[in-house]
Each structure stands twice: as structure tokens, then as C-alpha cells.
Amino acid sequence: MTKSDGRKKARLVAKGFSQIEGIDFDQIFSPVVWYKSICLLLAAAALEGWHIKGLNVKLAFLYRQLDEEIYMEQSEGFKIHGQEWKVLHLHRAIYGLKQAALAWWKELLTSMHKIGFEHSQSDAGIFIHKTKNEDIVIAMIYVDDSSFMGNNATLVKEKKKAFMGIWEFHNLGELNEFFGITIRCSGCKIVLDQKAYLTKVLDCFSMTNAVTANTPLPHRYTPVAHTGNPDPTLQTQYQAIIGSLLYLMLGTCPNIAFAVIKLSQFSANSSKKHYKWAKYICHYLAGTKDYTMVFDGNTNKGLIAHSDSDWATDINNHCSITGYFFKLARLLVSWLSQAQKTVALSSTKAEYMAISDCCWQAMWITNLFGEIGFPVSLITICGDNQGSLFIGSNPVQEKWTKHIDICYHYIRECIEDNKVSVVFIPGNDNLADMFTKNLDRLKFVKFREQLGLTFGPTKNA
User: Fold this and answer.
1) DSSP character string of 243-301
2) DSSP 8-state assignment for residue 115
3) Which of 149, 331, 391, 411 could pair covalently with 452 via S-S, beta carbons 3.0-4.6 A apart?
């Protein structure tokens, strides 16, 4: 195995697929930091001029004592002569075990508490250390990748040193990569991209020198579900390309969010047409592979959200599409494009459900920033449907709103408590529109330029 920095690794891995639930393992879930949290904290770092350091824990899964009694066959090619029939008794976790990640998390949690960190209630992959003089150090942990950031350089180094005293590590110095995302700090700006990974994806699917496209999918294109029997080979290829595009979309490519999420709905039974349009997204990416996301710490604009929906446009199930995003430091820090869970009977109800979902995310962001000492007084949510804004701002019950699920009325409480405010903007100015449908070239390019993405000379016209 070759790491992104050129290092090569070989590991002894257990055959976890042969483990039996209830005998060899019980719980296996292990928390990691969310993509959205990474973007939010990097935005805060740009605005506050924080110092950021990184390191990688070596052989992270091998530190924790196992709670279960597990035996493993001797590895092929390394069996002890004359004792081939013997097995290995595992005292500690090892790569390949289903519970290895959880075992590492438990060990990590204990160790972080010992050096003065408390884990966040908003994201279990974030650990926070505060001092009486309001200095703060935040640790982001994604399995064995770790990042330490804070306003006091000496304290950041001190806590990083304490962390390194517990584990074997690879010191990365200034953080330049995290979770496959390249990170560069330049003054008050933090620049992100996944160019290296994007290049690998295009090369993997023979799209490196492909003819470029102006948009991720053609204007007004709507995919149709495949009703025939699935082709296993095609399905494997389709899932591979969709999985690769999802990784890009979740990380640094919000401009392909709607297209990727829409096509991902057909992963269980894809057709040749679906695969063709998945590669069409690669045509678009081939023309915009020289891109970056830039957090600008010099801006004085606060956190703002845009919400939108596209009513009943899915011809397969007639569900509406919810799209929203949050912007801070002139760049998106959180975005979503997804089908609504229930059928909306009008565009107003679809918009109301979308803006309510956006409100839930706003409250999570408020809680996370509150934990790190950045109180958020009021988040503005922009929408382009007057009816949905009226329902949220006025707790009235009408015969045409009584069937809306009660959970969507949470936004009324947030507006009443002055946690969020809702503002009307014209539909032609609502950037969230690109998260709900395939736009024409002119509108797509106009909106894309306002997301905080910058493109090099290969930008599509």
C-alpha cells in the first residue's frame, strides 16, 4: 500500500469477515470527525488566525486491549515450522478485526481526557481544551489522522507534544493534508482542494483527456429508474464511479452535489444510460480540475444560509428535492442536496420542509460553535417562497398546513427564540437552486462563482 505522501506500508490483517457477531464482536461503530465540522473549524481558523498542526498515529489499531477472546490462524508464508497447527491468541486489536476501530476510539478517548481534552457533544471526532485565560486548542481526529489548532501557538505545540508522548507518530508539522484534502495556509487564507484525488479518478475511468462539459448534467435532464434486471458488472462499475464522485462532492466539490446525489439513487439497479451520465460528470470535472476552495479570513461577513426546493420533479416517486448551504468566510462550510422523505402536496410545503431541514443544521452549527467559544446570536436563512416563510414566522394552523409533520414546525420555535431569522430573496438570486436541479450553463456558472470556488485556466466556459 502506498500512502499519499509516497510512503509504502505492509500490514498483517485479520480475516474479519469470518468473525461471528455475538461471539467474536458486539459493537463496531467508531466515531470520526464529520466533513462539515472540518470545514467549519477551518473557516474559524481562517477568521481567527489560528495555528494549525498535524500528525499521523502509527499503527493506531494496535494499542487497545481486546475485551473478547479471539484467536487467529498463522499468516500464510510465516507459519512456524513444526507448529503449523497452532493459532495466535490476540491480546490487542489488529487491522481487519471488525471491532478494531472501536477499540482504538476507546483508547483515544481515555488518552485525550488524560491530557486535558473533552470530546465535543456536537461531533464526537472533535476534542476541545480550554484555559482560564480563554486560550483554546481543538483536536480533530479521523481514525489515525489528527489535527491540532488554536489561538495560542505555544499551547498548541504543548498539547500536540503531550499527544505525541502517548503514541508512536509521524509528525506532519504544519497541516498540509487531512482526510485526503490538501490544505495550504497563506496569511489569513486557507486553501483546500482534492486535485490529486480528482486526477486519480479521471485516470481510473479513462477521462483524463476527455472532452469537457459546461455543467455536471445537461439542463432539465431527469434520470429514469431502470426496471430491468441488474447487470452485476455494470453495477460494480457504476457504484465505483458514483462512490468516487461522492467523496469529491462531500469534500471540496459542492458544485456537483445535485448531479451526484441524483444519480446515486440508482446504484442498486443502474443502466447503461445511468453510467453514461455518471461519466458525463467526469467530463465536467475534467474541465474544472484546476480548482480550489478558499476560506478568506479578511471578510467581515457572518454565517448565512440559503434554502430551496424543487417541487415533485422526481418522476420516479414524485418526491421533492431539498437543497441548502451555509456560507462563512466567503466559502461554503456545509451543503446538502437530497430527496425529501415524504411527498409534498404543494411547492409551499416542499419549501417549508426544506427550510425546516436547514434550520436543524443551523442549530447544530450553533451548538458546535458554542462549544468552542464562538456564540452565534442569529443565523439568517434565505428562501424564495413567501408562503413557506409565512408559515414559519406565523404559528397559525390552516386546513392546508395541518397535515405537515410536526417535526418540521421546529423552525417556528427557533424563530420565536431569535435563533434564526428567515428572509425572502428572489428565485433568480437563490444560490441554493443549484442544489435542487440541473441549471442551464449561464445560471450555473453565475451561481458557482459565488460559492467560494476558484478555477484555473481550464475553467469551462
Assistant:
1) HHHHHHHHHT-GGGHHHHHHHHTTTTS--HHHHHHHHHHHHHHHTS-SEEEEEETT---
2) T
3) 331
Give the up-direction half-sphere exposure of residue 382: CA atoms within 13 A in the CB hemisphere: 16
DSSP state of 384: S
Q: Which amino acid is at 443?
A: K
SS3 of residue 346 by DSSP: coil
- CA atoms in the 13 A half-sphere facing the CB of 349: 19
Q: What domains appear along the chain, each with residue ranges and CATH number?
A: 26-75+87-179 (3.30.70), 195-286 (no CATH), 299-455 (3.30.420.10)
Q: Give the gyration radius of the chain's Cα atoms.
A: 24
Chain segment 345-376, per-residue pLDDT in tens: 888 888 988 999 999 999 999 999 999 988 88
Can you state the angle between helices 232-251 and 195-204, rounded to 10 degrees? 170
Q: pLDDT tens across 400-433, in order? A: 566 676 777 888 888 888 999 999 999 899 999 9
Contact by Cβ (8 Å): 128, 55 = no
Look at the alpha carbons of 305, 187, 257, 30 in this order and tell me if their dihedral is positive or negative.
negative
